[in-house]
Amino acid sequence: MKKNCIFAGILGIGLALTPLASAATIGHTSLSHSHSHKVVESQHAQKHMSHLRHSHRSQASASGSHKAGSAGQRAPVASAARLHGRRRHHGPYERFDTSSFARDIGAGDSMVGEDSRVRAAAILALGDMNGTVVAIQPNSGRVLAMVNQKMALSSGGQPCSTIKLVTALAALNEGIVEKDTRVPLGKSWSMDLTSALAHSNNAYFEKLGRDLGFERVQHYARLFGLGERAGLHIDGEQPGFYPKEEISAKQGGVGKMCSFGEGISLTPLQLGALTAAIANGGTLYYLQHPQTEDEVTNLQPIVKRKLPIAHLIPELSDGMEGATLYGTARSLRSNFTESDVLGKTGTCSRDHTRFGWFASYTNTPSGGIVLVVFLQGGRPTYGPKAAEIAGKVYRNLYDNNFFAAGPATSTSASVTTGGGASQP
After folding, report:
1. How many other CB atoms sit within 10 Å of the CB of residue 178?
2. How many CB atoms lie within 10 A of CB 87?
3. pLDDT bracket for residue 43 (50, 70, 90)
């Protein structure tokens, strides 16, 4: 009798523990990644697990995805970064000290000798971005407008990918590549000049830089006006900087100089003068910024030097046009598509400041115009944004018949803004 009682007690305890063991087994199975068998939980267990899924979803994300409910059904997965309320960053976090925005950007500019239509169009397009817009007449070197002259005349900044124009012209003139030459960049891929310019491929131009070598790269950079003042008697203009020796291997050597402009300081006026030479067929003019209406009327173009690039421009132009059609500068076309625009973007950062560059030109029957947009700031600042601003300038000029009439020889012209108002 005593034995029977003990047996009955043990049996009762075992029966009482069975649901717990079953639940434990189900819980273990539901977290398993095995798909070899199907487990069907009781209705109570399903409700309990559904409650856990909704109230502890972050725990599920921390342990990875797992089966919930029937086999093959997965619970939603949140990133580990979301558990802590912050975004995941790949690589070191870059902090910027310079604002991308500014007020009264053109205050203090000397504008008496500028084309007021061009200036107003540039100011309207630039808005509150911290930057400068320089507009140049490519066949004379006349500066039609220079908004935020303090920045435009400064020592500039790292040219970023706009330096690729110098590298491309040097490599073409030295016979290292032609427009359609496929340059191997890996075991299974290569690229030609047109695509490399349009998409601003760093590896391509690093390869060209190493093939050229520093001595030849330096020769062409200085020939094209880097490291010297681009203007003629423009008060306050700085010459930028081009090193006399190749930067260290740790900094990337000549490859980085030719792809990213490492170790170089380029000014908006220097980039504008070079772009004007590309636009006009190879004449590097001194830039002139008239200060009176008489100086505008009597301005005579002054040639700095002739560049040996006339035969290279057709090789270069497809890539520059490709940048605005389908490449890094395609944001320009969100504002302007009425005329072909050729250009080159640049984005990089130095000393906690990001630079956004865009140099471009368009040619029309009445003449062309060169635009350089240079932005400084933080994350909102980058090359495609500069291209977008240039597109707005072209749009404003087109809407005010600038391309039909050409640059004004007097500063009394007016410009119509998008709202139909007239600005002096």
Report:
1. 12
2. 9
3. low
